[in-house]
Amino acid sequence: MLLLEFSMSPLGKGESVGRYVSRSLDIIDRSGVDYRLNPMGTVLEGNWDEVMGVMKRCFEAMKKDCDRISVSVKIDYRKGYRGRLGSKMASVEKRLKRKLKS
Amino acid sequence: MLLLEFSMSPLGKGESVGRYVSRSLDIIDRSGVDYRLNPMGTVLEGNWDEVMGVMKRCFEAMKKDCDRISVSVKIDYRKGYRGRLGSKMASVEKRLKRKLKS
Amino acid sequence: MLLLEFSMSPLGKGESVGRYVSRSLDIIDRSGVDYRLNPMGTVLEGNWDEVMGVMKRCFEAMKKDCDRISVSVKIDYRKGYRGRLGSKMASVEKRLKRKLKS
Amino acid sequence: MLLLEFSMSPLGKGESVGRYVSRSLDIIDRSGVDYRLNPMGTVLEGNWDEVMGVMKRCFEAMKKDCDRISVSVKIDYRKGYRGRLGSKMASVEKRLKRKLKS
Prior knowledge:
Four copies of one chain form a homotetramer.
Chain A: E1 2-10, H1 18-30, E2 34-38, E3 41-46, H2 48-63, E4 68-78, H3 84-96
Antiparallel strand pairs in A: 1-3, 1-4, 2-3
């Protein structure tokens, strides 16, 4: 299983791109793949084809009305681990023995 | 004000790097700069010198016992906006008229 | 056509990971997809499935002997443009009326 | 010494942002810090304050006429190594016993 964080924005659609970002989140939220939204991107958990498939659907939707698109992606694969959307942060809090802002 | 997300990991310290990541989170949490932790990084909000200063302190601490370090950073600056650690996600949920996972 | 830059490294294989990076470059170089190597990653040019296919092959090869893998990816899609592996830099040099280091 | 790759673009200035990117490259090229331009960003080599200082000057210049700016940064620090703008690629070519496209 892997964690994949991505953010995807159109260039040339003005300074406010919330309309396009919301459409991606709609696709992600309906995909069945587990995720967490944060202020700078969305983190998905699944195998390579699952998470890449969701990202591609977001890209295909954005391409329909956006001629230039930037995507930023970060992947953390770890063999034999799952449920890391929650456990990675819990592990840091356990080490520090206090709650962090999330 | 800008949002800066970063993640910082040592190479050559084995597969589990939670010990080093926790030390960074301790620095961030005590810095006074507002932040949100997510499974793939930490998002800080502040001006350039504030957020870069926190990141540099994390780097200086990690350098003490790590000889190779990777850092990944993403910045979203928007003039005249603040409080976006919460408002960016709220704005997407408002458009979609439902709660998302965060 | 899109440009995709990526870098992929194992965690837990020590500080020197050139052996694994070289194997990826071998895959990329034999893929038939056009690319340029730089000190921090490799930039591919092609359509979504082509460039993602190459990246997946690199990932599958690395997974064979690496249990934790980090990948960093950046995509720049621009409708109707191709040959940007060379033209993006040429355009900057033309504006500045001098050669840059590349 | 560290390698830092970054790309910086305004949002809300249309699809073509070469004018702003060229201004950054002018700052980088005159900075005295060694660098290599590639189709997706610029890689600088120096210590933390040097490379961050150049990136900040680019940001300050872009802020003057851009109200929303995205920056993507990747850092590879390795204690005791320098000259890696050239040597990282040479090392891959040596392992593969052939020239790669760069």
